[in-house]
Protein 1
Amino acid sequence: MTLIAMPEADPTVLARRADIVKELKRFLPETSIIVSEDERRAYDTDALTAYRQLPMVVVLPETTEQVSEILGFCNAEGIKVVARGAGTSLAGGALPAEDAIVIGVSKMNQVLDVDFDNRTARVQAGITNIGISNAVAHAGFFYAPDPSSQLACTIAGNVAMNSGGAHCLKYGVTTNNVLGVKAVLIDGTVVEVGGDWLDAAGYDWLGLLIGSEGQLAIVTEVTVRLLRTAEGARPILLGFDRVETAGACVSDIIASGIIPVAIEYMDKPAIKVCESFAHAGYPLDVEALLIVEVEGSDDEIEFYLDKITAIAEKHAPQSLKVSQSEAESAAIWKGRKAAFGAIGRVSDYMCMDGTIPTGQLPHVLKRISEICESYDLGVANIFHAGDGNLHPLVLYNMNDPAEMVKVEECGAEILKLCVEVGGCLTGEHGVGIEKRELMTHQFDQVDLDQQMALKGVFDPQWLLNPAKVFPLANRPKPAQTGQRVAA
Amino acid sequence: MQTNFSAELLKDPAMQASEEILRTCVHCGFCTATCPTYVLLGDELDSPRGRIYQIKDMFENEKPASADVVKHVDRCLSCLSCMTTCPSGVHYMHLVDHARAYIEETHDRGVLDKMMRSVLAFVLPYPSRFRWSLYGAMIGKPFAPLLRLIPGIGPRLAAMLALAPSTVAPRSALEGPRTIAAKGERTARVAILSGCAQRVLQPGTNDATIELLTRMGVEIVLPEGEGCCGALVHHMGNETASHAQAAQNVDAWTREIEGEGLDAIIITASGCGTTVKDYGFMFRDDPAYAEKAAKVSDLTKDITEFLEGMDLPEAVVETDAVLAYHSACSMQHGQQIKTAPQKLLKRSGFKVKDVPEGHLCCGSAGVYNIMQPEIASELKVRKVKNIESVEPDVIATGNIGCITQIGSGTDTPILHTVELINWVTGGVRPGALEDVILPGERKAGENPFLAAAE
Ligand code: SF4
Ligand code: SF4
């Protein structure tokens, strides 16, 4: 792509590549080092494939000790590091750099300890999000944040991006559900942050690490909060003939004080594609669809569904349907969670991620379609309406260079709009590479300087995922190799 | 995903088809999570998305297949779990098939690997050669530990011997070519694929199918000239051989379709079913065969798919047996048949349990358990553990490869779904249950408590 530059690679590091590989072999097994170009190629991008960069080496450590050795080595040698979970980032969070070592945590995918009495689980960071819930489901528990990619994405990536998901409306995002982490600092020091309790003594270091996009430390173990699975849950489908009406209905539901587990929004193009994948019984003739899910005992579910129906009816929905069975509910969610991939059946897309005050929904949705129209690009909207987290998918042809430029500009305009109406640039995907240059719209230089000063405390040489998050201009000068890590 | 194929390259219809597949992949990574090799190895290179990416790079840059890429494509089981998971509808099967053929064209595998492959391709698709080699394997079995020490192919030879049964089943009395009349009024006429390996290893499966279907008024034809479906060589990238075998079957069935007519072509090994259902695609650019092959694929049904909508004969045997149903990858992913076998078994009176991690392959995957013994045996252990966690009295499945693979890791009897259905509805007792009495086994209608007291 065009607008977003990568920093220049360090030629002295590139020149030492063969030696670096040799060194890595001292503390890593053969199967954990990926060297050949053919093999590195598969690691050159994540789920934001518009950006690609072949990394210098990829390593897949199996233990915290190995991660510590690798980081200690990189720090001493001044080699950049990009951490990778499952590579499902839609913001390019795992995009490699030419002179960087990619550290993938995918081999560390075990559950270490489950404590049902205290409702916690300790897992290795490379386990998938759903892997945690699967491991405790038999006892009636689950891990709450549920990004749409939960089948594949790792808890490591969730921690790095402070990921959310459809059900975060009720349960909060990653930071509200992680109790502690074991993390490795850039000099190889292994630290434990947080613990088995809801709020640790002292500063909220955990709050700092969660969402730090692999720029402060590499997390290798995570202790999560487990929740009791609700007795039951049922979604209701509300179809509207106007986008704005659906938006108004969301605002009303939230304003009424009810907190459903999820309020999801899909527009017409999205409904059509998702229905053909999941056969969920979505209404095909409406302009906008809301999936509202409530949970609890049967009585509770009835009570809330009645209230929501009453609110919806004020907006004269075109269709209103309560799921009648578990199979139907599963299909409804399958369609929603697979939505991004399913859109891939019809077109390439750029998935945006911004958050706005829910009261602004009708206005913003209208503006988004105007913006896309002005660029002559299609758009499908799928998002977490309940917490105002938008995911417009701007449709384009990736094989057409002119459209690549257009989509990037169009996306930037949409995100700026989110900031203008009092929202923010990112919802749950993080800044990554995608929104790096837009950060100046959200923060002034004073704010950014303070944030970067903090990064410098953890990582004085700026070795950890350095190309991301902060605009390239006005960055502090990194310390030279050999200076002590202050953290 | 963005692709970069030259116009020249896209003139090749196979490349064009692959390019279209690659364009639908959005690189979301969902498929990695349900891929058995990724789950075991934790390396994206051994995941569907990673393989797709390597294949794309190889194709669009017109690179001969490198040893690295070959390693990761070879490790793919073709279980197609990724296709079930993919929200974007990426046709991984056609892509990897193309990649395998491309590898055979552009990569030199070395003498030993090639020899191993030629031997398998020479023996397995041909029942009499296969039967003779099994006698050989019986003699060779004690030498497996020694063979394992041969560098290069030792572990594969040992794996092959370990899989061979310790006795060779006698030939079926019902071997084709022949026509077997329906009992009573004829309601349908079907061909049954006799196939290759299954016919030698488990002749009871097709015998039971014939017994059951004829009792249900179906006339059976085992046509002249049919043979292996071609899957075995197809998965080794040998397109010429697989197309020749497929063409032979298309011809054999077309003669029947145009002659007395066929209502269905019944397959009792889901691995073969996946391949035969793909004949239409295989011959899409062949004017002489395209139409005939598409017709054949259309008529092809797994035996459980065929039985699903029919009334089964009344049950004469009842049991209280807990049955673990192992859905073969070719059944659930390849053919997307997800409920028919379980429903039929329930209708036949079994307490059917699904197996945890049911989407993961058992490691059989054609000749995979011979070519990749380490991964295959890890998958087998994992599968058996999952099956045994539901404490079954008997295991049912729909594919001969899984029967051999899982059977070599458990003492619980494992057999084909149709053998059980045939038995409880009045057919012959399955060979696998010869020395086993299932819990609560009794004549239908008999009081279970009295039966147990006897
Ligand atoms: S799930 Fe489908 S679209 Fe996503 S990476 Fe895998 S093959 Fe590509
Ligand atoms: S076919 Fe099976 S082994 Fe091969 S990539 Fe797909 S899921 Fe993995």
Protein 2
Amino acid sequence: MSTEEKTNTESAQAIINFLKSSVPKSEVANVEAELKKDFVLGIKKSKNLKQKARKKKSKNLTRREKKALGFYNISRNSMKYEDLLPMHLMWSDYMFNVLDIEKLSGIPECYSKGWDNFTQSFYRADFHGSMLEVVRSKCPSYVGKKGICIMDTRYTFKMISKDNVITTIPKQSSVFDLYLKTFKVTFFGKLLCVRPAERSTKKLKSYLYPDLN
Amino acid sequence: MKKVQGNDSFQRINYLHQVSKYMSMKNPALSSYYGNLIVSIAKKNVLKIHPDIKRQMCKKCRCTLIHNVTGKMKIRNKNKLKFVVWTCSICKTERKLPIDKNKDHTLWVDKPEAVVEIIN
Ligand SMILES: [Zn+2]
């Protein structure tokens, strides 16, 4: 019994010490006095506890509110290409950092050691602000469109071209060229058909055979 | 060299925050789109957003707040304590942050015991 009592008092002391260390400095003296108080009414539950539980206000904007604020309609001519150029420069610096190009001294070859790592970090990187050009597409009118990507959704890229027009391009059936300072990377839009937030957790197969449909 | 866990996501959050801040002057809708992306990346990867970044975003529409551009900053007294009050000009949400000198509260990241290891 005595050992049990001892541990009890020890743990009680530990709690008091913890309280003293975490409470603001001005309150330290009051800690022990406060602990001696008995709360007689604390045992009884108040009757109007149920009434107090009100409906919580939602923290986030609902879809309808977002629409009312105009978050969904980025109109065709609402932005300027020149405004986005600094963003593209920022993106190239970021991409150089992520892909570690200076350390690797260039993009690694397909069957070399660094290829696996390179594709993985490329897949996980962000594409907002990249310079894209459509090389091949099922719809011929998309071919040759070039611009800075401003939005990356699950199935589309939204990009702004040099004549200040915003276009939406489906990923599924297009092949893109990506310009990164002096490099050019070609990729299939089909493989990026994942939501941009989820892409960073998913794993990509190291080598995928391109099928041309 | 040791690798930091979730390094690529942290870099991505850092970049997106910069873009979001830049965009808030041009197009608030895009700014809040990038802000939303930051939050969802952090959620998906189970990472914590640094308080300095988090406090610059509007709590509701996740647009980056800049004084006199997308929001208004005021210092207000309440119960003899000082607060910074940010009001978002898009969704009109208010956010109060305590900044009283007499209160000895510091953020966890500013405390010395928060640093476990420094990786270069
Ligand atoms: Zn807001």
Protein 3
Amino acid sequence: MTDQLRGDVVLRVNGEDRVVNLDNRSTLLDALREHLRLTGTKKGCDHGQCGACTVLVDGERANSCLLLAVAAEGREVTTVEGLADEDELHPLQRAFIAHDGFQCGYCTPGQLCSAIGMLAEVADGMPSWISADLTATPDLDDDEIRERMSGNLCRCGAYAGIVAAIREVADG
Amino acid sequence: MTAGSGLSRLEGHDKVTGAARYAYEYPVEDVLYVWPVGATVASGTVTEVDSTAALADPEVVAVIDHTNAPRLLPAVTADELVLQSPTVAYRGQIVAAVVATTIEAAQEGAEQVLVRYVEHGHKVVLDPEDPDLEQPETTNAGFPGTSIKGDVDAALAAADVVVDTVYTTPAQHNNPMETVAIIARWDGERLLLHDSNQGPWAAATAFGMLWGIPPSQVDVVTEHVGGGFGSKVWPTAGAVVATVAARVTGRPCKLMLTRQQMYTMAPARTATRSRIRLGARSDGTLTAIDHDALQYSSVIHEFVEQTGSATRTMYASDNLRIRHRLARLNLPTPRVMRAPGKTPGMFALESAMDELAYALDLDPLALRLRNEPATEPASGLPFDGRHLVDCLQAGADKFGWASRDPTPGARRRGRWLFGTGLASAMYPVYQQGGKATARAEPDGTFDVWVAAVDIGTGSRTALWQAAVDALGVPPSQVSIHIGHSAYGQAALAGGSAGTASWGGAVRKACLELSRRVAEHGGAVPSDGLEVTADTAEDQLAPDRARHSYGAHFCAVRVDADTGQVRVDRLLGVFAHGHALNARTTHSQLLGGMVMGVSMALCEQTVVDPRLGLFVNHDLAQYHVATNADIRGLEAHSLERADDDVTLVGGKGIGELGIVGSAAAVANAVFHATGVRVRDLPITPERVRAR
Ligand code: FES
Ligand code: FES
């Protein structure tokens, strides 16, 4: 790989600007895991098929394995490491523990980021595939949570706990 | 008293903050990335590996193939003997590996390696007419390949009613969310690994065998594992290649299989075909049970799924015959996936029992109660805690089974057809010997070490609870340390035996340490007190048939136009004895049931007979249950004192929930539609093909 195919990239992650020298082909996921040592974000498929790598980009959920790191420049990336406020866990993190919303924990960072993004989508009035009325304020019942969280696979089958945890936070 | 309480997981905070480190995530200086290259023929001989183009990239450090790889010694299966010969036994078998300074260069390099082959003919289809089928002596877990009691043919000829049907299950892939992942380093003749596996001690032993060094020279750290479900019980070809790369380059090497590579460089569950024949008197008494099971192994290693093993123990019959036959195919050696043998075998048997109930015009629950054995049918052994009937009856009550009208295809609302079905579950009790060390410090703190692993079962928390209970001290004074081979010989997370086996050793060490502390009048000397216990001699005598039991009750709706099946409710009742931790036990039972729904409705690895290829080798095409597929799950546990047979009380839990669940779904689909689907998964086109 010749030098012109590498370059410095400035990534803003969890509120901090980080400069990394990267192969231009690096995904955001590999940049986080291999270069910034933010290994909380997981790789389950590298092809946008499992959701394990979900992060928030400018507040919206995104599969970091499908995003080239260079394309994330100038955007605000939030990973699982950035969810807690110092030592105070995010309410969803607490709820996942309380409802045993994980077993192996490998899908969990993606589930958490995805759920935060999903709740923001609902607050914005975004319908899902199963919403009966596309313009009404979404009614986030359990089936809506399941539908909206189906991009995040959990092979351990912790879905019941995941839905209960999100339900608790959504209901405040 | 902490045992049994629903304490949340010790590593919960680390898992929700991203702090928990999995194998691939340890920072290592000067590390190289390994990318294996899989064979593109299903059978053949490698004639040339041309690495010129790959090596032209200065970031590519090495290309390894069978001509320049160091020699390995046989360990568990031939699949791990990577890069040892030019022979290709299946498509995807590792024929080369590229080692580079970045992931991107390693992947690109793997694309550049040119491999030439002479192709041989291949066979990849499981065919009951295959002239080369073998009749194995024994199956996995040591069951006889063939068991015969009485005269099955005569009993079938004399039966009032006979069911004679064939059930198939496809090859399935474990697909843990974390793929095979490893960082390997050599320090002289010591091999240092961060590895994702189901038992660091077993990993140290197997890697030691491969490299001809004792397990004490292999250091395996396995702090957190992103699921296994059987796929990480033994070292995979993918993991071994990282140790080869580290040896060749003299540098630390890391590898994480891609999801696609997981389909051939890590194991799967065999496809199975079960012909079941049941003979009964008109009152429902079984007079004959015949289970003829066909499965495959690779051409390089014999692995025989124990498909008929549950049939040995479920229902009474004077005449019982269980046979296993094995095809040898050009596919990777299949190995264990959650409840090997029981999962496909019970789909067949529990579906056939439902068919027999309809043939007899008898309630499927009543049919099972009528055929409850006094002793284990195949072995003649007395049972220790046989609670199948309890599970069936408790489940029927909770589910509301009594009001069910058995007529198939009779409940329609709009485009939906509704139905219910039940199936039994069982899983054997296993327990293995092993070591644990407990240490008391003068400041009143205690440390416990055991080479256990937590693949998501909650074992870390349960073992800590077992230690706290045995020591009888405040929980805050006790620390548990797992996930390191250096803690001594220990069991695998396999056969649902991990926590019982490790917990037995932890308990023994802690009780002995308590006694020693008491001998010192409660004052721990300045250099501390330490006890290492070994439970090798404390194992279960083979004089009883010991199993966990369960019953699944399922409600489905089926779209009358498309054939789409939705599971509305799946209720399981399980008798597994005392649970060390009620919360994680419940999660494991639910997780097994989710995988059962997934198996029933989605999962299949499709083989292209022409190319010998697993066609749908990713998560877009190999479907697993998503959140939207799972509704109305309920798991209930029955605690029965005579179920407390292992050193820590309870029986195994991890695999019980999947067994029988697919049959409960299939039986409910029949009740809804009148269509009997005997081939998994229950896809819309199979439901429509009436
Ligand atoms: S790793 Fe990105 S979606 Fe699976
Ligand atoms: S917790 Fe293991 S994959 Fe979700």
